[in-house]
Write a structure and sequence with these properties.
Chain lengths: 472, 280
C-alpha cells in the first residue's frame, strides 16, 4: 500500500488486493493502519510516476481503438464503437483487455456502456461488466451517488436529504435541487444517461516527421545519392522548423532495387535542424552503403525529436557560457560519434566509490556540467594498470612498504615511499567484498619513477603485491 | 648601385616568402609555463597556440607516458575551455588529471584505439575550433600526418598535443623520425629530494626540449604540476645539466632497452642509503 501526505497527516493513498482483503481502506491514517496490521509494508506514493504510467497504459490501449483518453488518477476511457468486432465482439474485447492488463500486473475492472460516465460508474461501483445498449439509466440507478463523480461535499449534502442512490436523485424535482446545489449535479446525470453529450479528449499520437522520394531511375552513384540526401534533408529541416522541433535521431532508409532496405541511424547530441550538419552526419555513413544494382527510394525519418524553438530564443538572449560552449561543440561531438560510435565520445564523471577503479563513470560528452570533481587529497596515478599486475616485492617488515620489487622482469629499488592508504571492499554489496582489503603505497624508485602498489589482505599463502598504476 | 638593387630585390623576395609562410604570418599568443627559464628560452615565451607539439617519454616509460600525461594536463589546466583527448586505450585515470587542475567537466574523451582513428579525429577537432586544446595519443607520426595536424591547428588557432606512446621496440625506433611539430619534448622522471619526514616529496621531472623552431635544445629539472597545473623550479638545483643532451643520441640510447638501475652512477646507492638511515 502507498502513503501520501495530507496536511500534517499521512493517509493511505492506495492499497493492493491483499491489504483490501484484511480491511485496510484508502483514506485511513497510516498510524491506524499500522496499528491494526503489524509489519505492514508502506511505500511513499508517487503521483507523478503514476500519472506517467497511466499515460503509457492509455497509449498501449490504442490497440483497441484510436480514441483513447487517460482518465487520471486511475482510469482509461476507450471508445470502442466500430472496432469491437476485431476482438470477437464487445464481450471478447473486454475479456481480452482485462486478460492482458492483469497479466502485466495491474488489478483492473472494466465496463462497457453507452456513455463514458456510465462505464466509469459501473466499472467502479457496479463491479464491471457490459451494460446493454440503452440501459445506462437503469444500470446506474442502484449505484451510490458518488458514481456520478460528485465531490465529497455534494455527496454529504445529498446524504442529509436522504438521497443515496442515483435512482433516487433522478426522481427528485430538478429545478429546486439545481438552486440548492451546483448546476453540475444534473449535468453529470444527463451525461451518464446519454441525454447530454460527453465527448472524449483522445490522445493524439504524434507522427514522426518523414520525407521520402522515389527516384525515376535507380541511383547507383554515391554523388547522386548525396545530392538527393541534401534535398531531402532540406525538406525535413523545413518541416521541423514549422513544428518547432529539432532532430535527436535520424533514420535514413534506402530501398534497393532488389527490395533490400538499408537503414542508417545517426544521432545528434543536442537537437538540431541544420541541414548542412545533418548532411554531414549521414554522409559519413552513406559511404558504407553498398548500392547494389541501384537505389529506388530514399526516406528520412526523424525518429526522435525535441522542441528546439525555445532554445534558439535563449541563444539570442544571455546564455550561460557552458551551454553556449556545448552548442558550439555539438557538431564536432556528433561527427566523432557517428564515425566512432556514440559511446566512445564521453566525459568522465566522479562516482562516490572507495574502490579506485570504480570511482570513474562515463557520461555523455555534452551532458550538463556538474562542477563535481574527485576529492583533491587522494593521490591517484595518471595511468592505471587494469587489471593490476602482480609484482614480486620484498618488504623489511610485514607492515612496511616494499624495499624493492620486480615488475615485468625488471627490478626496481624503492628509494622512498608513502602510505599505506587503506581501501576497504564495498561491504554493503556483499559479504565477500568485505574481506577485500587493499593497502596502497606510493613508491618512488631511485630514478624518480613513481608507482602505485597495493598489498592484499593477508591470506594463508602470504601477502601478494600488485602494481595498479603509474604516476610517472 | 647594383649591389643596392640586389639587396632590394632580395628583401622583396624575403618579404614575399614571409607572406607565404603562414606559420610566421600569424602573430601567435602562447601558453606560458610560468617558469622564467623555460619561457625565456622559447621564442614565443611559452608554447605557441595554433601549433603542434610533441611529447614523449623514453625507454620503458614510453608505454604508459604517465609523466607526460600529467605535464600536458597541467599545461592545459592553465587554459580555459574544453579539451578533446583522443585515448589509445582505457588506462588514463581521470582523477589524476583533476588533481593537476583539469576539471572533469572540461575534458571530452574520444576512445580511439589506433592511429588511423586518432589522427582524423584530432584533425577534425582542430579544424572545428572552439576548443582549448586537442590531445592525441599516437604511436606513429609521419611527416605528412604531422603537417596535416599543423595546418589544421593553424586554421583554428587551437594548440595540438601529440602524446607519443610506444609499445614495441619497432615503434620506439620511430622516435627519431622527423615530423612537423613546432616543439618536441621529452619528459622523464627525476629523483625527488629525500623528504624531511617519512613520505614522498613533490615529484620532479626532467623536461628536455629536443627540437624547437628558433631555439636551442635544452633541458630543465622541474617540480611536478601542483593542483592548479603550475610547474615550479626546485629550490636547489644540484643536478641541473649544464648542457642539453644531443637529441639523436639521447633518443637512440633510450630506445627499446630497459635502463639498468645502476646506470645512474653513485647517486642511486647513496639515495638508498639515505632512505635506509631515515627508515631505521
Amino acid at each position: 500500500m502507498t502513503a501520501a501526505r495530507d496536511g500534517s497527516r499521512r493517509l493511505v493513498a492506495a492499497a493492493d488486493e491483499a491489504a483490501l482483503a484484511i480491511g485496510l481502506r484508502p483514506g485511513q491514517t497510516i498510524a491506524h493502519a499500522q496499528a491494526s496490521v503489524p509489519g505492514l509494508v508502506v511505500v511513499e506514493a508517487e503521483p507523478e510516476a503514476d500519472l506517467l504510467a497511466l499515460g503509457e497504459l492509455a497509449r498501449w490501449c490504442g490497440r483497441y481503438s484510436p480514441v483513447v483518453q487517460a482518465d487520471p488518477p486511475d482510469g482509461v476511457l476507450i471508445d470502442i464503437a466500430g472496432s469491437s468486432h476485431l476482438f470477437g465482439g464487445e464481450t471478447g474485447a473486454v475479456r481480452d483487455l482485462l486478460r492482458r492488463v492483469r497479466r502485466s500486473g495491474y488489478s483492473a475492472h472494466a465496463s462497457l456502456a453507452d456513455t463514458p460516465g456510465a462505464a466509469w460508474a459501473v466499472a467502479r461501483f457496479g463491479g464491471g461488466g457490459i451494460v446493454p445498449t440503452g440501459g445506462a439509466a437503469k444500470a446506474v440507478a442502484p449505484l451510490p451517488v458518488a458514481a456520478l463523480r460528485l465531490e465529497g461535499e455534494t455527496c454529504r449534502a445529498l446524504a442529509l436529504l436522504g438521497v443515496e442512490r442515483v435512482g433516487q436523485l433522478a426522481a427528485l424535482p430538478r429545478a429546486q435541487l439545481t438552486r440548492r446545489f451546483v448546476r453540475t449535479l444534473f449535468e453529470r446525470y444527463e451525461r451518464v444517461t446519454g441525454l447530454a453529450p460527453d465527448p472524449l479528449a483522445p490522445i493524439v499520437p504524434r507522427e514522426a516527421p518523414c520525407v521520402r522520394r522515389a527516384f525515376p531511375e535507380p541511383l547507383g552513384h554515391l554523388d547522386a545519392l548525396a545530392a538527393a540526401l541534401e534535398r531531402l534533408t532540406g525538406e525535413l529541416c523545413r518541416e521541423l522548423e514549422r513544428r518547432g522541433e529539432g532532430l535527436r535521431l535520424l533514420d535514413t532508409i534506402l530501398r534497393r532495387v532488389d527490395g533490400q532496405p538499408v537503414s542508417l541511424r545517426v544521432g545528434a547530441s543536442l537537437p538540431t535542424r541544420d541541414p548542412a550538419h545533418c548532411v554531414r552526419l549521414v554522409g559519413e555513413r552513406l559511404q558504407t552503403v553498398d548500392p547494389g544494382f541501384g537505389i529506388d527510394e530514399m526516406a528520412l525519418l526523424a525518429a526522435r525529436v525535441e522542441p528546439l524553438r525555445a532554445r534558439q530564443e535563449e541563444a539570442v538572449a544571455t546564455l550561460e557560457a557552458e551551454t553556449r560552449d556545448a552548442a558550439a561543440l555539438a557538431p564536432l561531438v556528433d561527427r566523432l560519434g557517428v564515425r566512432l560510435g556514440t559511446e566512445r565520445v564521453f566525459r568522465a564523471a566522479p562516482v562516490e566509490s572507495r574502490v579506485p577503479e570504480r570511482s570513474v563513470k562515463r557520461v555523455p560528452a555534452l551532458a550538463p556540467v556538474t562542477g563535481i570533481s574527485w576529492p583533491e587529497a587522494l593521490p591517484r596515478p595518471s595511468r592505471i594498470i587494469d587489471p593490476p599486475e602482480e609484482v614480486r616485492a620484498t618488504a623489511l617488515l610485514p607492515d612496511y612498504p616494499p624495499k624493492s620489487f620486480v615488475w615485468r622482469r625488471v627490478r626496481y629499488n624503492v628509494a622512498s615511499a608513502d602510505g599505506p592508504e587503506r581501501v576497504h571492499g564495498e561491504w554493503w554489496i556483499s559479504d565477500a567484498k568485505m574481506a577485500e582489503l587493499r593497502d596502497y603505497y606510493r613508491v618512488e624508485d631511485e630514478k624518480g619513477r613513481r608507482f602505485w602498489l597495493f598489498r592484499n589482505a593477508p591470506t594463508p599463502e602470504g601477502t601478494r603485491w600488485w602494481l595498479h598504476g603509474r604516476f610517472t | 648601385m647594383e649591389h643596392a638593387g640586389h639587396n632590394a630585390a632580395l628583401s622583396d623576395l624575403r618579404r614575399r616568402i614571409v607572406g607565404l609562410d603562414r606559420s610566421a604570418r600569424a602573430k601567435r599568443s602562447a601558453l606560458a609555463f610560468g617558469i622564467e627559464g623555460i619561457d625565456n628560452h622559447l621564442p614565443w615565451r611559452g608554447l605557441p597556440l595554433g601549433t603542434l607539439h610533441e611529447f614523449a617519454e623514453s625507454g620503458l616509460e614510453s608505454e604508459h607516458v604517465a609523466a607526460a600525461t600529467l605535464f600536458i594536463g597541467g599545461c592545459l589546466a592553465r587554459t580555459k575551455g574544453t579539451i578533446l583527448w583522443c585515448l589509445r586505450g582505457r588506462d588514463l585515470f581521470a582523477p589524476a588529471l583533476a588533481s593537476v587542475g583539469l576539471h572533469p567537466d572540461r575534458v571530452i574523451y574520444v576512445e580511439t584505439w589506433k592511429d588511423a582513428e586518432v589522427l582524423p579525429a584530432m584533425e577534425e577537432a582542430l579544424r572545428h575550433g572552439g576548443l582549448a586544446g586537442v590531445v592525441g595519443e599516437v604511436a606513429h607520426l609521419s611527416l605528412v600526418a604531422s603537417r596535416r595536424l599543423q595546418l589544421a591547428a593553424e586554421s583554428s588557432g587551437v594548440p595540438a598535443f601529440a602524446l607519443r606512446r610506444w609499445h614495441t621496440d619497432a615503434e620506439r625506433a620511430s622516435a627519431s623520425e622527423p615530423n612537423a611539430a613546432f616543439t618536441r619534448w621529452r619528459i622523464a622522471p627525476a629523483p625527488s629530494p629525500p623528504p624531511p619526514v617519512p613520505g614522498l616529496a613533490r615529484a620532479r621531472w626532467r623536461v628536455d626540449l629536443l627540437r624547437c623552431r628558433g631555439a636551442e635544445p635544452h633541458s630543465w629539472i622541474v617540480e611536478a604540476c601542483d593542483a592548479k597545473g603550475r610547474l615550479a623550479l626546485p629550490a636547489v638545483l644540484p643536478d641541473r645539466p649544464d648542457r642539453a643532451p644531443r637529441p639523436a643520441a639521447a633518443q637512440g640510447g633510450g630506445g627499446g632497452r630497459p635502463l639498468p638501475v645502476a646506470a645512474d652512477g653513485d647517486r642511486g646507492p647513496r639515495r638508498v642509503a639515505a632512505a635506509r638511515r631515515r627508515g631505521g
